[in-house]
Amino acid sequence: MEKPADPKAPAKPGGNGGAARRRANFSEAKLLEFAELLFFAYRDFTRDPDAILKDFGMGRAHHRVLHFVNRHSGLRVADLLDILTITKQSLSRVLKQLIDKGYIVQRAGASDRRERQLFPTEKGRALAERLAAPQLVRLAEALRASGPGSEAVLRRFLEAMVNAEDRPKVSSIMQASPVPLKAGKGGG
Amino acid sequence: MEKPADPKAPAKPGGNGGAARRRANFSEAKLLEFAELLFFAYRDFTRDPDAILKDFGMGRAHHRVLHFVNRHSGLRVADLLDILTITKQSLSRVLKQLIDKGYIVQRAGASDRRERQLFPTEKGRALAERLAAPQLVRLAEALRASGPGSEAVLRRFLEAMVNAEDRPKVSSIMQASPVPLKAGKGGG
DNA sequence: GAAATAAGTCAACATGGCTGACATAACCGA
DNA sequence: TCGGTTATGTCAGCCATGTTGACTTATTTC
To answer: Global pTM?
Structure first.
């Protein structure tokens, strides 16, 4: 019953209903281009590891878990849930597989034995590096293409893209702390 | 049977097997940080529209289709397949729903009547703008936080992140051509 | 000792990828 | 005009990965 707008005159490019106006100096058109570029960039960023994972009967979810366990060895299940923003049931599925296949091991927490700290095995480290390799090449080339001094710009941009309330958490994660990341929970 | 590496001495941070060495001046650690930042940035970039979509009984796949149809009004199904890099069966599922709900209309191609050109309805344009709004705010703020002149850097970076062979295609898409995007197929 | 917390589990369901097979309509060249 | 190719659509089923809800176990904390 929904009468669609006349398809004879579709999508007036200038006629923006009002959502736009101007945002801090950036035109809507320009911002939309960045949105699209981000989509394309991320689409291809994940492509190489996805192909490798297929050979191992695993998916992108496994990659994410393995990456963070490898990079931030010793983190707890709760930290991982926080980072990935998925439910423990979703995490459990892939984590169990990674443990069963010998890519990750867990140990009871040092101070709190209810906690499970996660560590990569040698095999896990090897796979994590293999998955990361093409992504690092891509990033290095893109940074080079961006010109000198682009790293600082990139870092500021990406950090600002993160939800403001999560930035402290992300920062603390980025410091590759070998200690379980309690910051943002009760700590500071 | 897989004997895991001794979990007592997990993840020597310096002991990189050889995948690393040095990539064009960027340390592996730095590149990994960018990889993580990109993950967090994209994670949050998609969060706002995902929440809105839920109220409409739709998912991220609908958003992607609606976005590109709205931005590049008149593109063909084949163009969309190319952009999203999914199968026509996957696209069909969400596209059909968007058409049934009156967000998108199709017309037979002007020169080739086998083709289906896709257009947003008024309703579709409205939803696309509503979904884009929080993302554009986020992007504008992040660009501002990146400092003056960051746009050019960002653009170069994101374009370089795209697979080299797809860059011409992406460029032609970005020009918001109102004409069906035949470039990269047989054209130039 | 009771309550709270960290983690694990079972069951069911939704979304959105995939493959394979096949149908229809339209175009295009011989 | 006919036959092959192309653009699109569709059916059927599978897989990965997200969700909610309910419940258990081990451990810590008050």
So the answer is: 0.86
Q: Are B70 and A13 in contact (CB under 8 A)?
A: no
**pLDDT of B42-72, one tens digit each?**
999 999 999 999 999 999 999 999 999 999 9
Q: Do A161 and B142 touch (CB under 8 A)?
A: yes
Mean pLDDT of B131-142: 97
Show the tokens assigned to A111: 């101070």
Q: Token digits for B97?
A: 């729903």
Partners of A45 on chain B (C-beta within 8 Å) are 38, 161
Mean pLDDT confidence for B16-33? 68
pLDDT tens across A6-55, in order?
443 344 444 444 444 445 578 899 999 999 999 999 999 999 999 999 99
In 3-state terms, what secondary structure has residue B155? helix
Q: Which 3 state secondary structure label does DSSP give A110?
A: coil
Cβ of residue A179 closer than 8 Å to a chain B Cβ: no
Q: Give me B2's structure tokens.
A: 């897989």
Q: Is A60 on the interface with B (CB under 8 A)?
A: no
- The answer to whether B121 contacts A35, with C-beta atoms less than 8 Å apart, is no
**A-proximal residues of B, 102-121, CB under 8 Å:** 102, 105, 107, 119-121
Distance between CA A119 and CA A42 in Å, rounded?
27
The candidate with the shortest Cα–Cα distance to B163, out of B85, B100, B56, is: B85
Which nucleotide, over all strands, has the C1' atom closest to the CA of B86?
C17
Q: Which nucleotide is nearest to A77 (CA to C1')?
A: C7
Residue with structure tokens 């020597």?
B12
Q: Give pLDDT tens digits for A103-149.
A: 999 999 999 999 999 999 999 999 999 999 999 999 999 999 999 98
Does the pLDDT at position B112 exceed 70? yes
